[in-house]
From TrEMBL:
<keyword id="KW-0614">Plasmid</keyword>
<dbReference type="InterPro" id="IPR011075">
    <property type="entry name" value="TetR_C"/>
</dbReference>
<dbReference type="GO" id="GO:0003677">
    <property type="term" value="F:DNA binding"/>
</dbReference>
<dbReference type="InterPro" id="IPR001647">
    <property type="entry name" value="HTH_TetR"/>
</dbReference>
<keyword id="KW-0805">Transcription regulation</keyword>
<dbReference type="Pfam" id="PF00440">
    <property type="entry name" value="TetR_N"/>
</dbReference>
<feature type="domain" description="HTH tetR-type">
    <location>
        <begin position="8"/>
        <end position="68"/>
    </location>
</feature>
<dbReference type="Pfam" id="PF16925">
    <property type="entry name" value="TetR_C_13"/>
</dbReference>
<dbReference type="InterPro" id="IPR009057">
    <property type="entry name" value="Homeodomain-like_sf"/>
</dbReference>
<protein>
    <submittedName>
        <fullName>Transcriptional regulator, TetR family protein</fullName>
    </submittedName>
</protein>
<keyword id="KW-0238">DNA-binding</keyword>
<feature type="disulfide bond">
    <location>
        <begin position="66"/>
        <end position="105"/>
    </location>
</feature>
<feature type="DNA-binding region" description="H-T-H motif">
    <location>
        <begin position="31"/>
        <end position="50"/>
    </location>
</feature>
<keyword id="KW-0804">Transcription</keyword>
<dbReference type="InterPro" id="IPR023772">
    <property type="entry name" value="DNA-bd_HTH_TetR-type_CS"/>
</dbReference>
<dbReference type="InterPro" id="IPR036271">
    <property type="entry name" value="Tet_transcr_reg_TetR-rel_C_sf"/>
</dbReference>
Amino acid sequence: MPGGRRRGFDDQVALQTAMELFWRQGYEGTSITDLTKALGINPPSLYAAFGSKRDLFEKTLDRYMCERTLQLEEAMVRPTAHEAVLDFLTGRVEVFTAPGQPFGCMTVQAGLASGEPHHEIVDLLTAAREQMRQTVLDRFEKALADGDLPAGTDCTALARYVMAAVYGLSVEAASGAPREELTAAAILAAQVVPRAQM
């Protein structure tokens, strides 16, 4: 339909499609032509529906984070910090290797090729990762206050370690590493978090 969106256009389906495209190809690697072809609409319709490419990317990132935050929050309510991290890491492996979607983590993959010209995209992705790190840090600080972690535990360093493990698993998943091997690595990484001392 020249000049408009095609009949049956679904904004949510379009967002999912665009999200997976950015996730697979990165922000810089995804052109307006790529987006309009994948979504089945012309450029004016894309701009009318979602704004600029940057606006669309932000919407897809919000969608991605909403879906992934639930798994993090569910893991963080486990009774101990060790169990929380174990669930978080092994759950992330399942997400990173789920069939029918790009492998790895969008907050890592989408920014790998982004340089200075698109620094705001890097900032958006960094903020998304920081949000997750803060959630993990809050859980460790609670565990420390509750006596679940040994006195003197460096919660900040521990949270950094866990997130580094998450993104390492993401890169490995995107490289095609088998789920079984990544799960074993996640279990090993979780061992750095002391088990309950109570």
